[in-house]
């Protein structure tokens, strides 16, 4: 990846009546594309910075289709980064969970990333190779044609179709199937928070599926479980133990829409220190992903600093 020019901020939105720079016009789309490929807010913003530098350096008058040029650029930069990141994740301390990002209703309504995939889906996408992931995201999430994707990735259309077929089969075999509607998810979320705040072990265990698993990502920076936890008793006791520690005093659990689903964030003072995302089946929580790595929490801070908005 080229050295980043930290002295060149991304462009600000133009004033009414001024021509819109294509990078500004499509910034949310570019963010969404890179985030779906990388699962990292920080890395996505780095990719956008590199894309802006390339866009600034090119003869823009010679670019017939700026949107396609920008999507192609951000996709290939993300692919290059993802290839190296996959190697780094092999030595990551503890489970690796994608970075959560707040998707508040107001942000979703104005964003081309409105249908952000859930954290569970991002975990599934991690099992694809970089090119399969790019093809799947560009086709299934953003609806690009096979011809467009072939142009972005310098591959024949027939090859793109074959790659998508493999990726779809892989994703469909691993994609979680859950049945909670919004009302049920809200009710279970409220009960989960009440049980945690009240230290009620039995109530918490009642909410957890028999096969519940918890993954905890601390990245070796903060204390976290380095192996998945299994079973209602083990998971519930561990959660209540974490919340009972002295350094957890004053932590508030709050319902927040994260990655398109009602989830829970832990707040200490004015700072969000962790995010619970989870899946629900048959009225119980089946999987819990607990992100506490402070380097991966930028996307769950206050909604007015949502990284999907134009800065």
Automatic annotation (TrEMBL):
Occurrences of domain SnoaL-like (ranges): 190-268
A Pfam family hit: Sigma70_r4_2
Domain RNA polymerase sigma-70 region: 25-86
SUPFAM superfamilies: NTF2-like, Sigma2 domain of RNA polymerase sigma factors, Sigma3 and sigma4 domains of RNA polymerase sigma factors
RNA polymerase sigma factor 70 region 4 type domain residues: 121-170
Top-level taxonomic group: Bacteria
InterPro entries registered for this protein in UniProt: ECF_Sigma-70_Domain (IPR052704), NTF2-like_dom_sf (IPR032710), RNA_pol_sigma-70_dom (IPR014284), RNA_pol_sigma-70_ECF (IPR014303), RNA_pol_sigma70_r2 (IPR007627), RNA_pol_sigma70_r4_t2 (IPR013249), RNA_pol_sigma_r2 (IPR013325), RNA_pol_sigma_r3/r4-like (IPR013324)
Alphabetical keyword list: DNA-binding, Sigma factor, Transcription, Transcription regulation
CDD domains found in the cross-reference section: Sigma70_r4
Assembly behavior: Interacts transiently with the RNA polymerase catalytic core formed by RpoA, RpoB, RpoC and RpoZ (2 alpha, 1 beta, 1 beta' and 1 omega subunit) to form the RNA polymerase holoenzyme that can initiate transcription.
Sequence similarity: Belongs to the sigma-70 factor family. ECF subfamily.
Protein name in UniProt: RNA polymerase sigma-70 factor
């Amino acid at each position: 990846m080229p050295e980043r020019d930290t002295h060149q901020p991304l462009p600000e939105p133009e004033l009414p009546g001024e021509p819109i720079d294509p990078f500004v016009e499509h910034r949310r789309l570019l963010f969404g594309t890179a985030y779906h490929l990388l699962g990292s807010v920080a890395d996505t913003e780095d990719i956008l910075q590199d894309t802006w530098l390339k866009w600034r350096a090119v003869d823009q008058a010679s670019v017939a289709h700026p949107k396609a040029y920008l999507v192609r650029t951000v996709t290939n930069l993300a692919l290059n980064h993802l290839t190296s990141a996959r190697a780094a994740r092999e030595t990551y301390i503890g489970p690796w969970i994608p970075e959560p990002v707040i998707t508040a209703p107001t942000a979703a309504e104005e964003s081309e990333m409105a249908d952000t995939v859930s954290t569970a889906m991002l975990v599934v996408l991690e099992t694809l190779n970089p090119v399969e992931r790019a093809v799947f995201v560009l086709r299934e999430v953003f609806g690009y044609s096979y011809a467009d994707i072939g142009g972005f990735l310098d591959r024949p259309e027939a090859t793109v179709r074959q790659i998508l077929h493999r990726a779809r089969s892989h994703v469909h075999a691993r994609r979680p199937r859950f049945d909670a509607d919004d009302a049920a998810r809200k009710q279970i979320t409220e009960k989960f928070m009440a049980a945690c705040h009240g230290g009620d072990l039995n109530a918490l265990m009642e909410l957890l599926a028999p096969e519940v698993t918890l993954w905890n990502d601390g990245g070796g920076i903060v204390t976290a479980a380095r192996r998945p936890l299994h079973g209602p008793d083990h998971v519930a006791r561990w959660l209540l133990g974490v919340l009972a520690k002295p350094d957890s005093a004053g932590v508030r659990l709050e319902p927040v829409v994260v990655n398109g689903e009602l989830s829970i964030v832990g707040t200490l003072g004015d700072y969000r220190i962790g995010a619970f995302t989870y899946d629900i089946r048959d009225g119980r929580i089946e999987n819990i992903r607990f992100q506490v790595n402070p380097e991966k929490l930028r996307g769950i801070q206050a909604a007015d600093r949502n990284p999907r908005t134009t800065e």
